[in-house]
Design goal:
Length: 258
């Protein structure tokens, strides 16, 4: 395959041309862990420039509300969750209040969300566990959080990172897709992707990096048609050429190489 010719102002030895040469080299041989880590750090820097502020888009005023909102956000949009939580939080402002209610009452308030019956049950069980096992407080370790109903590693990492400032990598569908496209992980399983990313970046970068990947997945690196032409990561992304070619030829199936 022919290498792209450097454009005006991108002569041999320019930073852009050096990046391209390095990527071309990497395509011919396997990237070392040091090279991959350096590339991951460069990606993290560019994402930080593109998205300086990292905020959880789920409305909440304390850690308990954040936990409830993250449990509700599974397989639905943050906007949909933000519509139901004001009334939910008004009626059940503490784990004790939520634990006392019937899951049918919770269902009525969250029925616009997917999986609302299972989520209502999980919320009530989780609230009971908080009251009975943790004195009504949200715990601050991965082991304790993942014992709670409705809480997996993804939810636990959001709570750890944003509520307790304990580094954690949040692997949702966007983070998973981008980690693979960017060549930072070959795995499908979130726990393995989490492990791969944690080896490439220092702990103090984990929380913000994974959240920025999620933002980038929502705004630029779409599942079906990634906007590679306007992507700030294109020079550091091994998938850029493949997607550009597929999209230029109008072929469907960009999804197949996610
Ligand atoms: S270059 Fe394309 S595939 Fe790579 S991260 Fe950007 S949008 Fe996604």
């Amino acid at each position: 395959m022919k290498e792209r010719v450097a454009g005006a102002g991108e002569g041999v030895g320019s930073p852009r041309s050096r990046v391209r040469s390095e990527l071309a080299l990497r395509r011919r041989r396997r990237e070392t862990i040091q090279e991959k880590s350096a590339r991951a750090k460069a990606i993290a820097e560019r994402l930080a420039l593109a998205y300086p502020e990292v905020k959880v888009p789920l409305h909440h005023s304390d850690i308990f509300e954040l936990l409830v909102a993250v449990i509700l956000s599974a397989q639905c949009t943050d906007e949909a969750v933000n519509k139901v939580t004001p009334e939910l939080f008004r009626r059940y402002p503490s784990p004790a209040k939520l634990a006392q209610t019937d899951s049918g009452d919770i269902e009525k308030l969250i029925r616009t969300l997917g999986l609302f019956r299972a989520k209502a049950k999980a919320l009530r069980r989780c609230a009971r566990q908080l009251v009975e096992e943790f004195g009504g407080r949200v715990p601050s370790t991965m082991a304790e959080l993942t014992r709670l109903a409705g809480v997996g590693r993804k939810t636990a990492n959001v709570i750890l990172g944003h509520a307790f400032k304990i580094p954690g990598i949040v692997v949702d569908t966007h983070c998973r897709r981008l980690s693979r496209r960017l060549g930072l992980s070959r795995h499908e399983e979130p726990s393995k992707i989490e492990r791969d990313l944690s080896r490439l970046l220092p702990p103090d970068a984990w929380t913000d990096f994974s959240h920025r990947l999620i933002i980038h997945g929502r705004r630029v690196c779409y599942a079906r048609k990634p906007a590679c032409a306007s992507c700030a990561l294109s020079e550091l992304c091994p998938s850029q050429r493949i997607f550009s070619k597929i999209i230029a030829q109008g072929k469907p199936g960009a999804r197949n190489i996610s």
